[in-house]
Amino acid sequence: MIIVMKTSATPADIEQSVKNVEALGMKANIIQGTERTVIAAVGEERVAGIRSLESGPAVDEVFSILAPYKMASREAKPESTTVRAGSLTVGNGQIGVIAGPCSVENEEQIIATARAVQQAGATALRGGAFKPRTSPYSFQGLKKEGLKLLAKARAETGLAVVTEVVSPSDVPLVAEYAEVLQIGARNMHNYRLLEAVGRCERAVLLKRGPSATIDEWLLAAEYILDGGNPNVMLCERGIRTFEAHTRFTLPLATVPFVQQKTHLPVVVDPSHGTGHTHLVPAMSRAAIAAGADGLIVEVHPEPEKALSDGYQSLTFEQFEDMMGGCQRIAAAMERQLGEWTATQPARTG
Amino acid sequence: MIIVMKTSATPADIEQSVKNVEALGMKANIIQGTERTVIAAVGEERVAGIRSLESGPAVDEVFSILAPYKMASREAKPESTTVRAGSLTVGNGQIGVIAGPCSVENEEQIIATARAVQQAGATALRGGAFKPRTSPYSFQGLKKEGLKLLAKARAETGLAVVTEVVSPSDVPLVAEYAEVLQIGARNMHNYRLLEAVGRCERAVLLKRGPSATIDEWLLAAEYILDGGNPNVMLCERGIRTFEAHTRFTLPLATVPFVQQKTHLPVVVDPSHGTGHTHLVPAMSRAAIAAGADGLIVEVHPEPEKALSDGYQSLTFEQFEDMMGGCQRIAAAMERQLGEWTATQPARTG
Amino acid sequence: MIIVMKTSATPADIEQSVKNVEALGMKANIIQGTERTVIAAVGEERVAGIRSLESGPAVDEVFSILAPYKMASREAKPESTTVRAGSLTVGNGQIGVIAGPCSVENEEQIIATARAVQQAGATALRGGAFKPRTSPYSFQGLKKEGLKLLAKARAETGLAVVTEVVSPSDVPLVAEYAEVLQIGARNMHNYRLLEAVGRCERAVLLKRGPSATIDEWLLAAEYILDGGNPNVMLCERGIRTFEAHTRFTLPLATVPFVQQKTHLPVVVDPSHGTGHTHLVPAMSRAAIAAGADGLIVEVHPEPEKALSDGYQSLTFEQFEDMMGGCQRIAAAMERQLGEWTATQPARTG
Amino acid sequence: MIIVMKTSATPADIEQSVKNVEALGMKANIIQGTERTVIAAVGEERVAGIRSLESGPAVDEVFSILAPYKMASREAKPESTTVRAGSLTVGNGQIGVIAGPCSVENEEQIIATARAVQQAGATALRGGAFKPRTSPYSFQGLKKEGLKLLAKARAETGLAVVTEVVSPSDVPLVAEYAEVLQIGARNMHNYRLLEAVGRCERAVLLKRGPSATIDEWLLAAEYILDGGNPNVMLCERGIRTFEAHTRFTLPLATVPFVQQKTHLPVVVDPSHGTGHTHLVPAMSRAAIAAGADGLIVEVHPEPEKALSDGYQSLTFEQFEDMMGGCQRIAAAMERQLGEWTATQPARTG
Question: Chains near D, with 3+ CB pairs < 8 A?
Answer without folding.
Answer: A, B, C
